[in-house]
Amino acid sequence: MMNGSLLALYAGSIFATALLGGILPLLIPTKNDHLLKLFVSLGAGLLLGMAFLHMLPEASHMVPHSFGLWFLAGFVVLLVLERFVMIHACDEHGCHYHTVGLTAFLGLAVHGMIEGLALGSSLVLPPLAVFVLVAILAHKAPSGFALASILKLAGKSNRQILLFSVGVALSGPLGLLLAYFFLSSQDYAPAAGALLALSAGTFLYISACDLLPELHRTGDDKVKRLIAFLLGLGICLASGYLMPHTH
Fold first, then answer.
1. 100 CB-near residues (< 8 Å, 6+ apart)
2. Which of 2, 70, 109, 143 is deepest in the core (most CB within 10 A)?
3. 149: closest CA among 233, 231, 30?
4. In percent, how much of the chain has pLDDT > 70?
5. What distance in Å separates the CA atoms of residue 54 and residue 246, rounded to the nearest whole number?
6. Closest CA to 203 of 84, 50, 79
7. How far is CA 240 from CA 53, 192, 200, in A?
């Protein structure tokens, strides 16, 4: 059984790192629209990278025969919800950011919980758990950063963004606690794989359909936006080399 103090240390590290990523965009002046859109381009790269480089590979090992179906379902469900359900009375410019914030939050929360489950399971072998923790922390702050940037561009208040960020930050420790209480059971694995693939599908939709259009907007900073997007992909790619996958 895993050590209680080690459990608290790991949970605190995940929470603090994720919350830090969510707080940083709040320090950006609201009127600095160009800088904020650079961060949205960065967020697009982060979400796309997490979907293809982290979430989908893990899901393919958890549910090898159905991860593609769940991945497609996540994309299609979000398409249907955004086009026919989530309708907002706002100006055309920038309106889509109002619809993706909650979905990004839910996807990141599910992702964080699964990561917590994986970390909790690995704590029975402390040397392995250290590498799992490092890999989680490597993209926990960028994940929170991406979510907060999207919410800020959607016009959410700092208080609302902070609440969303706290929710995402708590998801990892929650998964860790679930693993602590149900370590002897492996029944969560199929459900975890399905949720990961589903979340990856929603991340693909958000990044490709809602955030990446920023790269195509006219302006002097379009090259900077492309660089920011590629940087987001690079961060996710680099974090994957810190350790083997957690499957």
1. 82, 150, 154, 206, 210, 211
2. 143
3. 30
4. 73
5. 10
6. 50
7. 7, 20, 16
For residue 240 the two structure tokens come to 């994957």
Question: In sequence order, which residues have a C-beta less than 8 Å from that of residue 82 and are 6 or more positions away?
Answer: 96, 99, 100, 103, 205, 210
Question: Using CA atoms, how far apart are residues 116 and 175, in angstroms rounded to an integer?
Answer: 4
Among candidates 186, 200, 208, which has minimal Cα distance to 68? 200
Q: Is 57 exposed, middle or buried (0-12, 13-18, 19+ CB in 10 A)?
A: middle
**Is 233:45 a contact under the CB 8 Å cutoff?**
yes
Task: Collect all residues with Cβ–Cβ distance below 8 Å to 157 and sequence separation of at least 6.
Answer: none
C-alpha torsion 216→217→218→220, nearest 10: -90
Cβ neighbourhood burial of 127 (10 Å; 0-12, 13-18, 19+)? exposed
Q: Where would I find the H helices in the chain?
A: 4-23, 33-50, 56-62, 67-84, 97-122, 126-153, 158-181, 188-205, 222-239
Dist. CA 33–CA 30, nearest whole Å: 7
- Measured at the CA of 36, the angle between CA 77 and CA 141, to 5 degrees, comes to 70
What tokens were used for 169?
Answer: 């930050």
Residue reference for tokens 């955030």: 211
Q: Are 128 and 152 in contact (CB under 8 A)?
A: no
The rounded distance, in Å, linking the Cα atoms of 81 and 87 is 9
How many Å apart are CA 239 and CA 54, to the nearest integer?
A: 9
The string of pLDDT tens digits covering residues 141-177 is 777 887 887 787 777 888 888 999 999 899 989 988 8
